[in-house]
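thread from #wetlab-drylab

HS: before we spend reagent money on co-crystallization trials with guanosine-5'-triphosphate, can we at least see a predicted complex? here's what I'd submit
DV: go for it
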Amino acid sequence: MVNGIKRTLVVIPCFNEEATIGSVVLKAKQYVDEVVVIDDGSTDKTAKIAEYAGATVLRHDENKGYGAALKSGFEYAREKDFDVMTILDGDGQHDADQIQTVMMPVSDGKADICVGSRFLDSTGNMVPMYRHFGIAVLTKFTNAGSEKENKVTDGQSGFRSYSRKAIENIDLKDTQMGASAEILMQGRRMHLNCEEVPITCSYEGDCSTERPVDHGLGVLISILKYFEVEHSLLFFGVPGLIMFVAGLALGTWVYFDFMANNVLALGNALITVILLVLGTLAGITGLILHAVINANQRR
Ligand SMILES: Nc1nc2c(ncn2[C@@H]2O[C@H](COP(=O)(O)OP(=O)(O)OP(=O)(O)O)[C@@H](O)[C@H]2O)c(=O)[nH]1
Ligand SMILES: [Mg+2]
């Protein structure tokens, strides 16, 4: 902050975006103090064009993934002491003229994370049906456990703003496309305020650089991994308890059947043992993970 004015940064993660990056940087420059392009090991002229258009370029020697590019953006914002960081894609799908709209709730101190949503106001948005469905499913998972006011309609949007508090506290682990969900899930744990504003997003000529099914599955696995860590007791404990109770019920049936007919139902007896062992193991795993995570957080 200089003389009470917040210092603003735009970060653009890029992998081979020479066709679009120049115009995105030129537009973005009008709205913030500095534009940084994270060139994620591009093999084309992305870095040269971005520099020429007036961006600071940070290069990864090799392609490390979207999440790794975001992580570099967060690190830069921390190092250079920025108050507000806005991230948008370099492939031209986002309209850089909407930077102010996305930045506003954060600059005004109303939110720590502001998500530009493709689904709040559908005018101008042409999200293909299958993507719409995939994003809705992933957003449902991301929102699980969030308070109502922090739930989002577009958990996969890459157009977002972050406050200084978010910049200082978000510590990304996911190096790939799961990063967008991880940020929201971390934000929830840290009680960061989350808001949404409507944005447009272009799908002309399909700008995606990854196959949508791989993309979706990767994100889902990453959300489940985070959920498993965040809610270890629930994740392991509930299935463990269900298996244990089912084992007990089946075991009781096997016992009474044996007493009545003097024949042991071997198959059911085996299933009983498996259910009891798996249930116990899952329960113990949940308890241990829960204790370790709690101890870590207290530290
Ligand atoms: N796919 C991909 N994108 C990267 C990577 N590193 C940086 N990016 C940039 O991240 C932004 C988003 O990537 P896209 O593949 O367009 O993903 P998306 O826009 O969420 O997906 P679509 O809605 O399918 O277009 C783009 O500006 C990419 O250039 C990477 O390793 N892989
Ligand atoms: Mg894209």
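DV: The CA atoms of residues 178 and 218 lie 7 Å apart.
HS: ok that's useful, forwarding to the group
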